[in-house]
Amino acid sequence: MSDVLLQATGLRLAFGGVKAADGIDLGVMKGEFLAIIGPNGAGKTTFINMSTGYLRPNAGEITYEGSRITGLSPRAIVKRGIARSFQLPQLFAEHTVEQNIALAVASRDGIWSPLTPLLRPGYRDEARDLLDRFGLSAIAHARADALNEGARKLADIAMAVALKPRLLLMDEPTSGVAASEKMGVVETLARVLRDAQVTAVFVEHDMDVVERFADRVAVWSQGRIAALGPPQQVLSDPAVQRDVIGIERHA
Amino acid sequence: MRKIEPFLALLLAAAMITAAVTAPWLRFVLTIALAKGIAVIGILLLLRAGQVSFGHALYIAFGAYTVAFLAPRYGDAVVLLLLAAVGAGLLGLVIGLFVTRYRQIFFGMLNLAMSMVFYSLLEKLYHYTKGSDGIRVEIMPIAGQTLDRVAYEWWIFGIAMGLAFVLGFLIRLYLSSPMGEALAGIKTRETRLEFMGVPARGVLLAAYVMSAMLGGIGGAIIAMTSRHVTPLLSYWTSSGELVFIAILGGAGGVLGPFLGAAAYELVRIYAAASFADAWQMILGAVLLLVILFAPGGLWGMAARVMKGRAQ
Fold first, then answer.
1. Where does the signal sequence lie (chain B) (predicted)?
2. Are residues A116 and A227 in the same domain?
3. Which chain B positions have a beta carbon within 8 Å of A123's beta carbon?
4. Is position A154 within any domain?
């Protein structure tokens, strides 16, 4: 049995004259944490959007556990075990944090029960467990639109984890998080994902985070993968340091 | 506040019954208020998803004309209420499949267009509908019992009250269920629902069908109470009236529509009696005051008072 969970082959997508994906070939291995780095506009988010059904590539295909998922809707892809979080957290603003997570938990059952409460013991307990694991218990009853950016990011990711995915794609999980909180947030995240045996792909701009948590790094440049390998090897590559990390440090 | 909602509902019901007993002419007004309150719960459902329908009078008219057309053949109020609810639900499903593809102003205006098409049909198909003359509805048996006029009116009032309680209770459960909370999610993060595997359009369609059924039930009660149906029931001003009541009552809980409907009907009756030429202006002023000083409507005001007392 192959160890490749997600395989992208020859992905191409252009917006007018801009090539957001220009022949992407990438395999995501089961159990790994794969970081995607690169300058703004390199096509990192586009890759996540294509992998989760939000965008359809002009050419190429994506397979997940050996089955083609190119062109499937986000809903169909979620049901296969791929979840995502967002660069700008997508929380239900008028709900509490606990309700947000509980709704994600309930969505696994299809949410079509009209007469039993969302915060029934089963969903509520699982939501509280997730809140606990993400260190969000203290703000469980706060409205989502009242949270700081770090808490919003964690809640957003917790919602994705509540779907019990086998593959989680995260778009800049630490952007907007205070520098002093960043490592703590990622430590929490890594622990939860490893415990749940979730394979993770994450777009990241902080090289310290990448170096510490990624098993492999893919460097994106102008819609292509410029380098791929272990962090120590990739991040010490002079070309990557000059063309990407130099830019990252100034981004 | 949610905990004392049932208590407040009982209090409002007691006040309505007392008013209907002490001033029998109010029984008619309050029955209409209950019927409109039931229909406005449907508006509340759509507001929960951030959508406003400017055409829900269509379902009220459909329910009312169902009673008018079928009363001679299936002349029992209970049967006709069921037929009106199911018929309006089916119509809501057909129209909902189309309008739930749209959001915001497009959703609102498409509903308005549908209700005006129905209004035109009721006006133009004179042979069947008697056009703007409307159709008279005779007093009908209730659960097989033939009643005199006063007993009949009391029974319709009681049925409206009973339905308000049962439907209000069921909608209250629904709104706090995963399905109801997902409906609220459409208002703030519809995209997220899709990425959770939840079909947002399906969630809205289900709410739309429910709102149509509530409109149909409200319309059936109005027909049984006023005993005369006209195309005006489907006119755009009637849809606006439902939105008016929803804002007046507040969308925070299922009691809001009934508070709003009772206040609306009473203000209208008293304003029309006291200032025959200016009652619309008084209603408009009331709505302005509510929007400016009580954006949560009467229900929001009640909630604030209760909260203040609790502290």
1. none
2. no
3. 178
4. no
Give the CA-trace dihedral at A16, A21, A22, A26, to 10 degrees: -170
**Is B189–A91 a contact, with Cβ atoms under 8 angstroms apart?**
yes
**Shared-domain flag, residues A105 and A77:** no
Q: What is the chain A residue with the closest CA to B191?
A: A90
The verdict on residue A156 lying in a domain is no
For residue B207, give the chain A residue with the closest CA.
A114
- The minimum CA-CA distance between A83 and chain B, rounded to whole Å, is 7
Best interface-test mutation with B: which of A45, A54, A75, A100 has the largest number of B CBs within 10 A?
Answer: A75
Q: Are residues A115 and A178 in the same domain?
A: no
Chain A residues touching residue B181 (CB < 8 angstroms): 92, 95, 99, 103, 118
Give the domain extent around A132: 92-146
B195 has a chain A CB within 8 A of its CB: yes
Alpha helices in A81-230 (DSSP H): 97-107, 121-133, 149-162, 179-195, 207-213
For chain B, the farthest-separated pair of C-alpha atoms sits apart, in whole angstroms, at 63
* Mean pLDDT, range B167-174, rounded to an integer: 95
Q: What is the CATH number of the domain that holds A82?
A: 3.40.50.300
At A50, the pLDDT band (50, 70, 90 cuts) reads very high
For residue B194 the two structure tokens come to 């899709």
Contact: A104, B196; criterion CB under 8 Å = yes
Q: What is the pLDDT of residues B201-231, one digit of tens each?
A: 999 999 999 999 999 999 999 999 999 999 9
What's the total number of domains in chain A?
A: 2
**Is residue A51 domain-shared with residue A32, that is, in the same domain?**
yes
| CA separation for the pair B264, B4 (Å, rounded) | 23
Same domain, residue pair A82 and A8: yes
pLDDT in tens, A168-210: 999 999 887 888 888 888 888 899 999 989 999 999 988 989 9
Predicted pLDDT of residue A183: 86
Q: Do A169 and A140 fall within a single domain?
A: no
**pLDDT tens across B240-297, in order?**
999 999 999 988 889 999 999 999 999 888 888 888 788 888 888 888 888 888 888 8
Q: What is the pLDDT of residue A243?
A: 76
Q: How far is CA B272 from CA A152, A249, B269, B282, B288, in A?
A: 52, 72, 5, 9, 18
Do A67 and A188 share a structural domain?
Answer: yes
Residue B274: CB atoms within 10 Å? 10
Q: What pLDDT, on the 0 to 100 scale, is given for residue A1?
A: 44
Indicate the residue type of B119. Answer: Y
Number of A/B CB contacts below 8 angstroms equals 91
Which of B45, B186, B192 has the highest number of chain A CBs within 10 A, making it the mutation to test binding with A? B192
Q: Same domain, yes or no, for A128 and A239?
A: no
Looking at the predicted complex, does its ipTM rise above 0.85?
Answer: yes
Would you state the structure tokens that stand for residue A23, as one six-digit string?
A: 């022949």
**Domain membership flag for residue A216:** yes
Task: Show the tokens assigned to A238.
Answer: 């002079």
Q: Is residue A96 part of a domain?
A: yes
